[in-house]
């Protein structure tokens, strides 16, 4: 999970499997977009950051928080979860300064992580940030909401909270997040947010990466589906054979070898799906054939026992 406030919303809850992500990112590049794309999926969460049309950062963390990928590795993983169809894409607009601050945060080093806010001496923590001239970020968050306070050499630069596209000078929403049940705190040291970052789209053509992954993943999905169908068919046929054995045993008990032979003939018309019409026709046939060698009472007992096994 990547805990970030939502900037100014551009698109919400888009299924990225339905779009060509590299083409969409090229449009953002041409439009000199600044902000971030967030991809949430059961496998994990990915963030792609644009700064005035340049794709300057990509970050992915898996659902366990153990696997962390950056740059092209992160982009490939984001492409993968998008193609698989389980992801949800949200796009948020930011200012260039805030976009670079988010990049620094994602690559920051934890000083404190997942600390229960109720157990933290907030005043002492703020004094520590000031005394140590920390450049970094204080994150206050719950599962649903987040607020960030950025620092430069111990001095607060501003606040980032839901719905804002730039650093704010007030912290009202930050305070409200802090009051929410289960609120936690992270403190991270970061690098220089003013650094010049390379454009990852200028360094590599993402289209072929997307196409290769798409072809490979769709082939794997097709193979899995075919294997699942074969397995299901085998299971159904096994069930059919087990029923056939039971029917022959029951027929042998009531009408002898003649009944066993007639079961084999009548059962040949029953598919592995055991369709109702096929089963009904089987019982009609067995009842008619058994009349040649057995009394009605015995036939009725045989049919009743067979039906119990079918059910």
Automatic annotation (TrEMBL):
Superkingdom of the organism of origin: Bacteria
Coiled-coil stretches: 215-242
Keywords: Coiled coil
Protein name (record): DUF4388 domain-containing protein
């Amino acid at each position: 999970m990547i805990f970030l406030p939502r900037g100014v919303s551009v698109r919400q809850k888009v299924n990225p499997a339905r779009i060509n992500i590299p083409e969409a990112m090229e449009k953002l590049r041409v439009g000199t977009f600044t902000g971030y794309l967030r991809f949430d999926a059961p496998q994990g969460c990915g963030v792609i950051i644009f700064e005035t049309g340049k794709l300057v950062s990509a970050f992915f963390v898996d659902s366990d928080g153990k696997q962390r990928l950056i740059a092209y590795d992160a982009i490939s993983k984001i492409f993968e979860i998008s193609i698989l169809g389980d992801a949800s894409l949200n796009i948020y607009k930011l200012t260039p300064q805030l976009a670079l601050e988010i990049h620094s945060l994602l690559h920051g080093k934890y000083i404190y992580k997942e600390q229960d806010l109720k157990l933290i001496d907030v005043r002492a923590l703020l004094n520590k940030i000031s005394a140590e001239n920390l450049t970094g970020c204080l994150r206050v968050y719950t599962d649903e909401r987040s607020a960030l306070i950025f620092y430069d050499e111990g001095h607060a630069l501003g606040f980032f909270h839901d719905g804002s596209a730039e650093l704010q000078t007030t912290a009202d929403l930050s305070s409200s997040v802090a009051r929410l049940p289960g609120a936690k705190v992270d403190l991270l040291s970061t690098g220089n947010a003013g650094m010049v970052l390379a454009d990852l789209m200028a360094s590599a053509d993402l289209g072929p990466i997307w196409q290769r992954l798409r072809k490979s993943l769709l082939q794997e999905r097709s193979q899995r589906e075919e294997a699942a169908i074969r397995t299901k068919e085998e299971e159904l046929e096994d069930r059919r054979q087990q029923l056939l054995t039971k029917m022959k045993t029951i027929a042998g008990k009531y009408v002898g070898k003649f009944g066993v032979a007639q079961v084999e003939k009548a059962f040949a018309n029953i598919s592995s799906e055991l369709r109702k019409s096929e089963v009904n026709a089987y019982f009609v046939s067995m009842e008619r054939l058994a009349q040649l060698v057995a009394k009605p009472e015995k036939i009725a007992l045989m049919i009743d026992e067979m039906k119990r096994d079918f059910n």
